[in-house]
Amino acid sequence: MKAIIKLLSPAVLSMLLISCGNRGTNDQADTGTHESGLINDFIIMAYSGPPLEEVTLERYQEIADAGIEYLVPGNGTFNLEQNLKALDLAEQVGIGIIPVDMRLIPFALKPDVSIDTAVIKQMARDYKDHPAFEGYFVKDEPNISMYHALKEIADVFHTVDPDNESLSCLFPNYGTLTQFGVEDYDAYITSFIEIVKPGLLSYDSYVLRNEVTLYKEWFSNLALVREETRKAGIPFLVFIQSHGVEEGLRVPDRAEILWQVNTVLSYGARGIGWLSYWTPNPGLGVPHVEGAAPPMIEHFHNGPIDIHGNRTEMYDYVREANLYLKKAGKGLLGWDNTDVARYEGGKIIQKGSSPVVSLEGEEANIVIGTYRKDNRARLVISNASCDEPTSFALNLDPGYESAEVFASIDADPSGQNESLLEWAIKPGGSVVIEVKMKGH
Q1: b/e per residue, 125-156, with b = 16+ CB within 10 A?
Q2: What are the start-end ranges of the H helices in 279-419?
Q3: Mean pLDDT (the chain, rounded)
Q4: What is the fold of 2-332?
Q5: What is the pLDDT, as a whole number, of residue 420?
Q6: Do the beta carbons of residue 156 and residue 120 sit within 8 Å?
Q7: Model pTM greater than 0.70?
Q8: Which CATH number is correct for 336-437, 3.40.50.150, 3.90.650.10, 1.10.155.10, 2.60.40.1180?
């Protein structure tokens, strides 16, 4: 369990969340005026921007070109002057910024500390009117003992700036009871929703370990968060893996990158966040705060931009996934993810259903997420494996008829006449099929 603890406590203080506005949907991010205060976008985010000496317009254009629409700069950018520079550059290339500001960190790291409301109100006044500003970072992976303080901080921000969220990112379900501060992970999630009352819930999940993929934990976490956020009427997003960590996480290959984003989409997530974009420098994490636990020092490698500023193959993998999400993910905005079913060997193995279709194929290992809108449904069908291909056939409910393939990646029709109900999907691949009720 020690390795898990190490991986769950990145010194990068990465995963925050945001209040988000609408960003570009073309292959490259659009520039132009940002609409603040919206949390209805499909979020494509990354943590860890360029280090201070590389914070330039050229580097920020490179971020936008990768399809990233929201950035948590970090990696040495921690004060007002540094964050304002990042915001100005982000505005020029059409991306949003969620700054990490050291003025807030002591209140979110130290237990039982008195919260200085004047400091928090000044932070809000410093950032809230900038066109590229997207929300307030508060806390990464909080213990349940911090929930009331997080609520207090959020309320203070809200008094000055009611249009932007102040959000924190939760532990995944493979953490420890000490990290959660409660004996039940379900209670860790539900208590956060009940106490903090977030407008958007985020959690980390990094399951591509050096010698194993934590499939069980990945899918059970998605199922739980989906269920609880649906009850609360709020969206969720998942921070996922785009680099390796020595003695812990492997560097994802292309199929593993696609598997993460596509299965998350099947489960109804409103977006993803990449850990990370620019490979974090261990020496540029959030500085130690006296009285708080010392930050964990980890050694990251092979992110989309390596620690020396060079593009890696991960840049191309992440860009491809992001551009697919601009079609498949944003195309599901306004649709309701009413049902999810996961199949292994052709049989449902997790609570759920796929009411619009039934499945044929004893080797089918897939997830079907059903999104509905008016008299139509979009089926997000993703390979449940990042290791093996899968094939299957679907039987459409008699009340529906197939309409079109809305989006696909690494998926091919496999039946006669390229039927839209028979598919072969490569590891990590997915297809989004739209069907409609007969007579409409």
Answers
A1: ebbbebebbbbbbbbbbbebebbebbbebbeb
A2: 313-328
A3: 88
A4: TIM Barrel (3.20.20)
A5: 78
A6: yes
A7: yes
A8: 2.60.40.1180
Distance CA 156, CA 159 (A): 5
Question: pLDDT tens-digit profile of 338-394?
Answer: 999 999 999 999 889 999 999 988 889 999 999 999 999 999 999 999 999 999 999
The residues facing 424 across adjacent strands are: 391, 412
* 425/53 Cα distance (integer angstroms): 43
Q: Range(s) for CATH 3.20.20.80 in the chain?
A: 2-332
Which amino acid is residue 253, in one-letter code?
D
The secondary structure of 85-102 as a DSSP string is: HHHHHHHHHT-EE----T
Q: Using one digit for the tens of pLDDT, what is the confidence trace for 69-90?
A: 999 999 999 999 999 999 999 9
Structure tokens given for 45: 């985010």
Per-residue pLDDT tens over the stretch 206-217: 999 999 999 999
- Residue of 371, 374, 340 whose CA lies nearest to 354: 340
Angle of CA points 330, 332, 334, to nearest 5°: 105
Phi-psi region of 417 (alpha: psi -120 to 50; beta: other; left: phi over 0): left
The H-or-E segment that residue 71 falls in is strand 70-72
Residue type, 210: N
